[in-house]
Amino acid sequence: MFTSEVQFGHAGSCANSDRETASAKNKALREAGAYVPDSFDSLGDLIQQVYAELVKSGRIVPKEEVPPPTVPMDYSWARELGLIRKPASFMTSICDERGQELLYAGMPISEVLSKDVGIGGVVSLLWFQRSLPPFVCKFFEMCLMVTADHGPAVSGAHNTIVCARAGKDLVSSVVSGLLTIGDRFGGALDGSARQFSEAYDSNLHPMDFVNQMRKEGRLIMGIGHRVKSINNPDVRVKIIKEFVLENFPSAPLLRYALEVEKITTSKKPNLF
Question: Can you list the residues of the chain whose pLDDT is less than 50?
Fold first, then answer.
């Protein structure tokens, strides 16, 4: 079948002469001084024998055995044994209720109540992660008080009333009103804050800001009212504005908006 001697056990191995056989190769290695085992099974014993001879002759100095690194426990197995628990999927840095007492930005709830920080103080802790000065907390409370009621005509209040008259519960009624908040109801506050902030941060002169908005055909959010005007201002806005100017060390964004107001009201008194 085979025209030449074939050595099974290695892919494509063959011996065309006696010198190419495994026995001849092992013999040549022995004659060259190599340690050659009689078979693969005796390889370990030969290694141990050679190692012992090298240690005895002093060519190898044994070192202290280093313990192998500990193999980490499998997560599923450790969890099944109750050694670990899966971390929470949702975490918050606003408040901490893991201890014996609820914490607001690191302040115990008992201290929040004993110091009487008020709603403004709680807002400063939860929203800004620190205790803000009293005048800032007072500002928060004033904003909440002057916007607590907006009459029945706006879409948010209207939807809430309609749902309540339909027999829906309080949460459903309030949510139906909240869902109407957008560019035409409630969004002017967010929009004006965004526009004025971007203009101020870009060092855009108030006049350039007005001209740019006119050129782009965009309304300046927060500017203009159907009923109120510079001669008949909204008392709520007046109160908040005066409080900020009198109590805040600086109010660059408000002053920027007032400069814009001077430009727009020169064209029409209700553009304030």
Answer: none
